[in-house]
Write a structure and sequence with these properties.
Rossmann fold, N-(1-d-carboxylethyl)-l-norvaline Dehydrogenase, domain 2, five-stranded mixed β-sheet, globular
């Protein structure tokens, strides 16, 4: 597989490599961007989506608007479920849509392909490894600000698109090969040794950003300026929980990262709230609260933010203004 390390067979021997085929489950802001970049770089990409989305992609292709990568359109092979062997599958749906989306990706069809969830939160790895062979499921995180404006239209506004990969079960050569292939498409990729640290380091930053920007209804710059005390308190609480769970970032690291991002940056949770979509509140805030309880830690500020956002979402859902997940 050009750009992907040679796979080993079931007894550890090397098998002949071929050009990689990548499946992308969920052609939204993240999956659409990654799949389009891979396709532009010459990879064969199969998108898995709902029937209406798949039909639109087959008809119109996939268009990306990006300051970093430029504006381009690629033709698309879009289907409703995986029906052929692939080398890797990037799972890029929201956590709220994961269970129904996985019906498009049967274990039999998946074969020996790597499964790379680029989901928010820290609890999905267990569920995926119950469904698919553990050595094939790779922990992944992505830093990017990218939005699906319409089926087949992706707007990438951040100057970065950076992925971290790790697995305690997957052979390192397969991780390195996957990273190389993604890198050739222009994506920044780092392979780390500790999958728990990868997930919790991302969640330390993301939970602070998502909960505060969504609660305030403003980009991070206004939070930094007007809610500094809350920002510091939440960062301390979440970093403490993350450290107990296996993360490596301290509160000062999280705050420094939040201070570096563009003032106009909005979290994906805030964008979902503005669009009236279901929030990934349980995957992000809920993960922190459950880990805090497991480790006997008090997180009053974080808990109050989660409770307030849950109440808002409940009231919005009761009013009928909350649409179903895409």
């Amino acid at each position: 597989m050009t750009g992907f390390a040679q796979q080993t067979d079931d007894v550890g021997g090397q098998v002949q490599s071929t050009d990689a085929t990548i499946a992308v489950l969920g052609p939204g802001g993240v999956g659409g961007l990654l799949g389009a970049l891979l396709a532009r770089a010459g990879r064969r990409v199969v998108f898995l989506a709902r029937p209406d989305t798949a039909a639109a992609l087959r008809r119109d292709g996939l268009t990306v608007r990006s300051h970093r990568y430029g504006d381009f359109t690629v033709p698309v092979d879009a289907r409703t479920e995986l029906d052929e062997p692939v080398d890797a599958c990037l799972i890029a749906v929201k956590q709220t849509a994961l269970d129904p989306a996985l019906t498009r990706l049967s274990a039999d069809a998946l074969g020996r392909a790597l499964v790379v969830p680029l989901l928010n939160g820290a609890e999905h790895m267990t569920a995926l490894r119950e469904r698919y062979p553990a050595p094939q499921v790779v922990a992944g995180t992505i830093r990017v600000e990218s939005t699906r404006l319409a089926p087949g239209l992706i707007e990438h506004v951040s100057p970065f698109a950076a992925i971290e990969l790790a697995s305690h079960a997957t052979p390192r050569d397969r991780l390195d090969g996957l990273a190389e292939g993604l890198g050739r498409a222009g994506i920044d990729v780092t392979v780390r040794d500790d999958e728990t640290a990868v997930l919790w380091d991302k969640l330390s930053f993301l939970a602070s950003l998502a909960l505060l920007t969504t609660y305030a209804g403003t980009p991070i710059g206004e939070v930094r300026e007007n809610r500094r005390t809350e920002l510091l308190a939440v960062a301390r609480e979440i970093a403490t929980v993350a450290g107990a769970a296996g993360g490596t970032l301290g509160a000062e690291d999280v705050v420094a990262a939040l201070d570096r991002v563009d003032a106009g940056m909005k979290s994906s949770m805030l964008r979902d709230a503005e669009a009236g979509r279901e929030l990934e509140l349980d995957a992000i805030g809920g993960s922190v609260l459950r880990a805090a309880e497991r480790h006997g830690l008090e997180v009053p500020v974080t808990a109050a933010l989660v409770a307030d956002l849950r109440d808002r979402e409940s009231r919005r859902s009761s009013s009928g203004s909350l649409p179903s997940s895409a």
